[in-house]
Amino acid sequence: MFTKHTLLAFVLSLVTLTTCHYTFPSLVVNGAVSAEWANVRKTNNYNSQQPVVDVASSDFRCYNSQTGATAQTATVAAGSQIGFRANQNVYHPGVVNVYMAKAPGSVSSWDGSGSVWFKAYVLAVTDGGKSITFPAQNINGVTFTVPRSLPSGEYLVRIENVALHAATNFQGAQWYISCGQINVTGGGSGKPGPLVAIPGVYTGREPGIMINIYSPIPATYTQPGPAVWTGNFGNQAFHVACIPQAFQRPKITQSAAALKRDYSALFPKTSAAALLAYRTREFSFYGRPQQPSSASQSPHSSAVGVVDLSDLL
Is the terminal CB of the chain with fewer CB neighbours within 10 Å at N or C? Predict the structure, then answer.
């Protein structure tokens, strides 16, 4: 029989457990936060806030097997900022991945099955060697830019926050998952990839999923899943190797007018000022190339950097 003290301790433990857990019930479009579960499918844990731990479960996709929920579809222009808002700050240390999948028709009646998902955004860790920090901890949401070259159509957008505080053992990582519905307008002709199935993208034993983050403190961290797709230039990945060397490493004194003169054929619709701004902003990364999103997209070596130039078109 429960004593008053035992019952009080039990109730307090439940309160503590609930406040440590969270959901992502709101979609964010260009800073506007939707009502809870309006543009996001209501998850099984909308009351309990309990996470998924089995990456092979059907609930690992959108976590709505019990609710069977769909949502209203938000209209989003390619190039806009979208994201998710949590119902409280993200309590646990961990990382965030956001995946997207294009529906073959209406997203409202689509379950997202098959190898159709590509990674659109990550919020990873900061490696310090002697310390490791988790930028996702204590935030109340994430936002990212929809690539301008993403094809128009209706999409599922899926956030997963991977809580790693108890991830030492298999199925110790906790997954906080939601799926939003969007209709992308004004898109391009990019080819998102690599495409993966959810569930299926993880085994649960990846070094970024089954990990002890406390002792010894990891010197490095491997983000689970495929590379982020940041956009294509037309139908092909636009590589640094495709850009004239002078534009890759322009003279710092090169004027906007000179850039426009020299590269008007490559960027006919782009103003001189925009070329100069883009050169300054994007090509400062030269020598730190990103990885191509798919080796099949280009004949160039995988060591060649990929650059999203869609905002110059």
Answer: N
